[in-house]
Amino acid sequence: MVLSSVLGFPRIGAKRELKKATESYWAGKSSVEDLLKVGKELRAHNWKLQKDAGVDLIASNDFSYYDQILDASLLFNVIPERYQKYSLPQIDTLFAMGRGLQRPATDSTPAVDVPALEMVKWFDSNYHYVRPTFSHSTTFKLNGQKPVDEYLEAKELGIETRPVLIGPVSYLVLGKADKDSLDLEPISLLEKLLPVYAEVLQKLLDAGAKSIQIDEPVLVLDLDEKVKAAFKTAYSVLAEKVPAAKLILATYFGDVRPNLDAVKGLPVAGVHFDFVRVPEQLDAAVEALSAEQILSVGIIDGRNIWKADLNKAVKFVESAIAKVGKERVIVATSSSLLHTPVDLENETKLDAEIKDWFAFATQKLSEVVIVTKAVNGEDVKAELEANAKSISARASSSITNDAAVQKRVAELGEKDTKRASAFAARLEAQKSLNLPLFPTTTIGSFPQTKEIRVQRQKLNKGEITAEQYEKFIEKEIQDAIKFQEEVGLDVYVHGEPERNDMVQYFGEQLKGFAFTQNGWVQSYGSRYVRPPIIVGDVSRPSPMTVKESKYAQSVSPKPMKGMLTGPVTILRWSFPRNDVSQKVQAQQLAFALRDEVNDLEAAGVTVIQVDEPAIREGLPLREGEERSAYVQWAPESFRIATSGVKDSTQIHSHFCYSDLDPAHIKALDADVVSIEFSKKDDSNYIQNFSDYPNHIGLGLFDIHSPRVPPQSEFEKRIADILAVYPKENLWINPDCGLKTRQWDECRKQLTNMVNAAKVFREKYA
Ligand SMILES: CN1c2c(nc(N)[nH]c2=O)NC[C@@H]1CNc1ccc(C(=O)N[C@@H](CCC(=O)N[C@@H](CCC(=O)N[C@@H](CCC(=O)O)C(=O)O)C(=O)O)C(=O)O)cc1
Ligand SMILES: N[C@@H](CCS)C(=O)O
Ligand SMILES: [Zn+2]
């Protein structure tokens, strides 16, 4: 009989219970026991939901208080000395590594001052993981037994689960060398790490685990021979040490074919493939498996919210069964459902026609079960018929097509993708901005305080009028400008108080989008997003940011940056259509933004920033045609959005959370770029952008952390940068926006940053 399986379920809770409990604990408003209780309740709820839906193989250890990769670092005791030395309770060490910790000494405890570990994008998603950080002195030992505890916790509730672990090769490859050990190749630590994996597997076996999901997502990346060979070493050692462990090796988000030689012959019970992304890999996958190995067929999309075409999915699974037989097939989600919102039932305001097209995590459980039942010969005729109706209703809906938008994209020409002059001429024209050497600025957002969110909630509930809300926002903008005057910045921002989120805000104003009330997805730690959904051709019915930017410009004579999110980032951080290419969706967004950029300029805004932090995450995971096409169309859509302005209008862009390729940044032809930098320990990274021909600001402090770097630390960073970059090109700014900080924190951070800039300005005056 074919079994159904789910690779992981969102842990945040349908009402964001985990966020509320975690932030309350951080604020000292509740105890660790309160937090742990919420965690336990969420796990129980999620397991029961899956069991009741009829899922056979339910994941455990998919829960985390911050990030599952950080959990693995704690489990293997990969805790750099700078955190170990404080001997904090385990959960506080976890949070210190995730978000940094700075607190004064008390009578009984010493002062703590430690920055966070680096946080980077999880493959091509908007989830961020905390990068394991290794040094020559790293040793591994089992620290607690979270996977075993959670397996037993489920068992006590009468629910048999399949524990999930990140695999040893991926765990190392996704990590990095610490700043004191830059010559270390993490994969060289494999043999030291494996005994600890074996210990966890043995403990899981002893606890009764029948099979274990071991995630090796790096198998969808381009891997060098050393890493490929590591799979054989790793899984042979584990099979030898724990022969009874039944491992299902899970890959997701891409094509495993180029690495199948590394998978072939591994002593594992089965392999999971993402056939939503790459259905074409079925034959090769089957061919790579031995006659006993299980094929886990990832056929329900873990990365998007569209209802699956169940009839098509059934056919696909049947074709897999025809190749390997029923006994060897499992029906599964393509990846963990972590990347999808929890429950569509909580959406009461969605247009009924559109709502019928979606499936969130909870609905996807039923999808997996229906497909499984169908291939097992159970009667699901009614469900399959209802599904076919929804699929064909969407395909023929008038909501998806807009002839005027399609015509504009079809007529796209070179004139739409190039600034009027080259950078040198633009720089000359931009002298009218009268900027000093080392201009200081921020990236856009200022603290999104509780007060702002409450006012927005009141507006949404109709408890205040649009005029009252507008007045409130104007006051926030005034305060942000006053703050920037006091701190002494050079180029101001309005602070983005009117935005719930830098993508959702635009989605809500653009035609062709749907948005949710409760469709939260974890982005990192306790920070969540509600990705808007692109349901049809996109256009801009009216200006989106001009009112606020114009108001801000009227309050101060200083240059004020207009602030937009770029086409690629809006696309990447939304749930995209699956019936139109990403390129066309980006071009449609780009034209909508071009109109906005031009309107801002017409309103007197002379500096306009168009953020593209997701441009790197959109890069196809492997080298090849798709990637070559992306590096053309992604920067081109940025240029469509920004090239309609005069030479004297200064275009900025901003990037964060990724290891960028300088060539991709150059292709945007922005006048000024700001790049997250402060957590890049590798001193060679500083060189990466040294031939960036236009102006650049390398982020000087980590905005995720409340930590305030002293002025001397800023000076040291600026001096390091100046050793590589011409002083005329350099801007002084933080890593990213300050929306997650408190005002008093960013006052201290920015004051030290501005004072450090002044030291250098005087030095070179
Ligand atoms: C810059 N980043 C972003 C990414 N993706 C995005 N889509 N947006 C980004 O900004 N990816 C990379 C990075 C890092 N990621 C994030 C993601 C999310 C946040 C963040 O701060 N999220 C907020 C939620 C923002 C939001 O939508 N707020 C709404 C709703 C606020 C709310 O909770 N209201 C309450 C009522 C008021 C109250 O009592 O507080 C309610 O509804 O119950 C809004 O402001 O209106 C988060 O808190 O998680 C940062 C970086
Ligand atoms: N302008 C945005 C960019 C975030 S990536 C902000 O400051 O929050
Ligand atoms: Zn950013």
From TrEMBL:
Amino-acid positions noted as binding Zn(2+) in the UniProt annotation, renumbered to this chain: 654, 656, 676, 736
Active site, per annotation: 704
Cofactor(s) the record lists: Zn(2+)
GO biological process: methionine biosynthetic process; methylation
A GO MF term: 5-methyltetrahydropteroyltriglutamate-homocysteine S-methyltransferase activity
Domain named Cobalamin-independent methionine synthase MetE C-terminal/archaeal: residues: 438-758
Pfam entry (one): Meth_synt_1
The Cobalamin-independent methionine synthase MetE N-terminal domain, residue ranges: 4-321
InterPro entries the record matches: Cbl-indep_Met_Synth_N, Cobalamin-indep_Met_synthase, Met_Synth_C/arc, UROD/MetE-like_sf
EC number: 2.1.1.14
Residues annotated to bind L-homocysteine: 443-445, 611
Classification via SUPFAM superfamilies: UROD/MetE-like (SSF51726)
Cofactor descriptive note: Binds 2 Zn(2+) ions per subunit.
Residue sites binding L-methionine per the record: 443-445, 496, 611
Binding site for 5-methyltetrahydropteroyltri-L-glutamate: 19, 126, 573
Record Gene3D superfamilies: 3.20.20.210
Pathway(s) of this molecule: Amino-acid biosynthesis; L-methionine biosynthesis via de novo pathway; L-methionine from L-homocysteine (MetE route): step 1/1
Keywords: Amino-acid biosynthesis, Metal-binding, Methionine biosynthesis, Methyltransferase, Transferase, Zinc
Function comment: Catalyzes the transfer of a methyl group from 5-methyltetrahydrofolate to homocysteine resulting in methionine formation.
Family recorded in the similarity comment: Belongs to the vitamin-B12 independent methionine synthase family.
Protein name as it appears in the record: 5-methyltetrahydropteroyltriglutamate--homocysteine S-methyltransferase
